[in-house]
Structures are given as C-alpha cells and as structure tokens.
Amino acid sequence: MRDQVTPLRLLPGEVQAQDTRVVLVREVLAGESVSCVAGRGDVDPVVLHRWVQQFVDAGTRAVTNAPDAQAAAQRDRFLAAFAHELRTPLAVGRGWLDVIADGDLPPQQLDSVMGRLQKAYLALENRINDVELLVAASLGRLTIRREAVAASALFEASGLHPQSPSHHPAFVDPDLFTRVLRDMWGAANLEPAPSTVQVESHETTTWTEFRVTRTGSPLSPSRLQGLFEPFDLDDDTSGITFGLYLARALTVAHGGVMGLEQTDETLVLWARVPRPANHSTPPMKGT
Questions:
Q1: How far is CA 282 from CA 71, 275, 278, in A?
Q2: Which top-level group of life is the source organism from (predicted)?
Q3: Whose C-alpha in 1, 27, 199, 224 is 20 to 30 A from the C-alpha of 260?
C-alpha cells in the first residue's frame, strides 16, 4: 500500500507573516493557482511566479546548505565596482593635498582648493552611506519606521511636483522612501533627454503605487537592464551609479515591489508599497 501524502499545511511563523508578498506566495504553495492569487492580490502573475520560485529556491538552499553562486558573483562585482567608485574622490583629494604640501598653491587659490577637497570628501561620505544603506537593506537589518504620510507630502519632500494633488496616505518611512522617489526621477531623466517627466500616485485594493512617467526617446534595452544593476557603468560621462538598485532594495524592505514598463514613446517606472491589512492608518502627516 502506498504511503498517504499529508496535505501541505502552512503554519503561522515569525518570518514576515503579514508581508503581502509572503502571504501571496504561501497561498500559492497551499494549492491556489497563481492567476487567482495574483488577481486577488493585484500583482502581475509573472511577478508572483518569480516570488514563488525565489521563495522555493531560498528554502532549498537553506535546507541543503548550498551556496548561492549568483549572489556570490554579484557580491564580487559589487565590491570591485565599489572600489572603483571610491578611487575618484580619493584621487582628487590626494592630488590637491599634494599641491598644498608642496607649497605650490598661490594663497588666492586656497578657498577654491578647499572647496574641491570638501566636495571630494562629501562624495566619498555619501557613497559610503549609500553602501551602508544598501547592505542593511539586503541583509534585512534596515530599520523601517513606517508612518502614514500623505503622498503629496512625500513628493514635496523629494522636490517633485505632481500635476494633480495626491492626498491619500502611504504607509512608509518618509526619510527612506523620498530617496526611492528621487532615484526614480533621476532614472527617468537619463539621456537621451526626455520630452516630459511626470509623477503621480494612486491606491489599489492592496497597494499604494507611485509612478514616474517619461515620454520621448526610449532608453535602450541595455540601459534599462543596467538600471537595476549595482554601480552599473553609464555609457556617458556620468560614471558609475546606483541606478535603481538601492531604490528597489528600499522598496522591497518596505514589503513592496518595483518595476518598469516601456513602449516606443513612454517609460513608466513604478514602486508599490502595501497598504495596511485593514486599510486603515493613523492620522496622516502632511495633509
């Protein structure tokens, strides 16, 4: 007689039990179809299928104690690119310090040189802060201080101006999420220069969505792919940048998801963060 198969029963646990993404994945693993769960959760079925695969792959690696070769390769690329990025401000600072040490600097140029040194130092400090933030997000050690903030207040704090006001709440860490919005705006303004760039936000049943829409000349497929690579090397003179790699990590740390859609004339970058489970939030800031 064949052994009986015990039906899969997912037990409540401590690991992000209320995370919208994990809830949807667990529903699929419990036997529901991807299409049904995706429709109910307002998620693209392709995205949900990827989450399920990543969830299973991560569990398999944990059970078998197998290393993640892709993560190791990405880490090596990241470290090499980060070292490259640090060399520029360090070289600038050392060059001007050598000039000062040699006594070849005219007194009237001292203020200008000190300004250059300060700029190089700030660039170095900002890059290190970015990496610390990225590492904390990637390791799940980033502290997210969520609060209900009017979407319009987040746009204003980011220096962005939607065409129509967005007074609905977003349940996010305002300090971190304004970084997400600024990085999305920067990505939408990459060369070739766009005709227009607009921002907006709206609510769905499950998510609060922020969108940055670019019209005009499209970005190349390689540029689009590079947006989500850490320290991707630009093909112009802007050097090595984070692109949307950090912005996506911060969005994921909020329990959200980031993506893009492009046609011949329009590029839409979007970031979705979950609404509270009961769709009620504390009194909003910024209203």
A1: 38, 12, 12
A2: Bacteria
A3: 27
